[in-house]
Structure formats: structure tokens, C-alpha cells
Amino acid sequence: MPRGKQVMVQQPIQKRPALPAGVVALENNFFHSQSLHVHFLKPQDHKCKVCDKYISGEAYGCDKFFCKFYIHTTCFKLPRTIRHPSHSVSSFTLIARSPYVKGEFICRACGDTGDSFHYHSSDNFDLHIECAALPTSVIVNRSKTLMLRYLFPIHVGPSATKCNMCRHKLPNNCWVYYHENSRFISHLKCAVTGNGTSAIDIQQRLKTMVPILSSNSFSTSSALSLLSRILRF
Questions:
Q1: Which one of 14, 86, 123, 199 has the largest count of C-beta atoms within 10 Å of its C-beta?
Q2: Which residues contact 112 (CB under 8 A, 6 or more apart)?
């Protein structure tokens, strides 16, 4: 070998280690800019970035150091589009952050603000994910069935209406749970605590709101396809 010449030794290509059996890498996903992998979390260690509830057991999470992005496997399957009975004018789309300049949205159901994942309509009607999935009825005090009301059911007089459960003031521009005969009225959170508010409950109720195309309706492409087949005969 002549002196003065350096031989370039090609380094072997570093391959990404294979994932263990049963572990999934979710790339190019809607919820996070990085790939998500299956993790097994202890109770009360991490909250889901989508529904804000604690995760216990299997979850999807980011492997980047200090990221701490975790979501329920059920929240990963939330429908991207729903139609809600409270607002039939337009459909709702699941979005990752507030579309407004202030960086926050106001939920039309509970009146609280938020700044991350929620359902948003084209006419600026916003709902927390959990609020969009509220049950239409709940049982409180072991026997009283309260119905979800999208409009405040009581005429507001000189004194403010109070929640029959926590005794605090009720805003008259938000949804409530109400019993018609006894006029028992409650905040949403007061009524639903412990009443089917797990991540699985939320996903199952939202699935029922996914828009379904009528079987009697034809799209333009379907109609043209049918016409071309008829003209062949």
C-alpha cells in the first residue's frame, strides 16, 4: 500500500433495533409529532394528554426523553368527526389545539376553558372530549334519574340558582342535569362523578355519534359509475 494514502473504511449501517413481539410503533399519527410505542404505566403516574384522566396499564407513549406524552389506547381510537345532538347545524372535528388567537377555547357544555384536544365545529362551537361524551341520563342519590339538558330549564329570578348537590351557583348558559318533577338540578361534574366517565365509556359513547351516510343516497361518483355500466348494454 503506497504511503500517504488513507483507505476509507465503510461503517456498517446502524439498523433500528426490532421492537419486541406485540409492541407497535405508531408513526405519522394524528396525536403526536413523534412515533408512539406501547408502554405499561402504573396507576396515578401519568395522565392521558387527550382526555386528561390517569392511565393505568397499557398506553401509547413517546420514547423521547422528557417528552412524557402518553394517551389511552382507547383515546387513540376516538372518532375524528362526530355529530352531536346539542348542535345539529354542523359536525364536529377532533383538533389538537385551540384555533383561537388567545390559545384557549370555551367549552359550550361546562363553561370551562381548555387549550388542547377537543371537538370543534366550523361555526366555532367547542366541546371538551368528556363533555361531548356525557351520558343523556345519570342516577344520583341512588334513585333519582337526572336528564341532560342543553338549555337551562329554570327561569332565573332575582336569586341565583344553586346546584342541589354542591350548593354552589349554576351558570345559566351551560348544560345541566335536571329532574323535571322535583326540579332537582346539578352541575355536570357533580352529577357524573363515578357515573360512567372512564376512557372506555367516553370512546363508546362518541362512536355512536359518528356520521353515517344514508344507504339511500348516492355520491356523484357512484351515480356516474352506475350510468356507465348501464350504457354498456
A1: 199
A2: 106, 128
Which run of H or E residues covers position 160? none
Residue 158 vs residue 208, higher pLDDT = 208
Q: Which residues pair with 95 in a beta bridge?
A: 118
Residue type, 204: Q
Helices (H), 43-172: 129-132
pLDDT tens-digit map of 17-49: 344 434 445 554 677 767 788 888 888 888 888
Closest residue by Cα to residue 178 from 152, 143, 197: 152
**Where does residue 108 rank: exposed (0-12), middle (13-18), buried (19+ CB within 10 A)?**
buried
Q: How far apart are CA 202 and CA 211, in angstroms?
A: 17
CA distances 128 to 14, 52, 103, 214, 229, Å, are 44, 10, 15, 28, 47
- What is the rounded distance in angstroms from the CA atom of residue 131 to the CA atom of residue 89? 18
What are 187-228's pLDDT values in tens digits? 999 998 755 567 778 878 888 888 765 334 334 344 344 334
Sheet with strand 176-179: strands edge to edge = 137-140, 144-149, 176-179, 184-186
Measured CA to CA, the distance from residue 86 to residue 138 in angstroms comes to: 17
pLDDT digits (tens, 9 = 90+) for 100-153: 999 999 999 999 999 989 999 999 999 999 999 999 999 988 888 999 999 999
Cell numbers given for 229? 355500466
Q: How many residues does the chain have?
A: 233
Tell me which residue has cell 392511565.
55
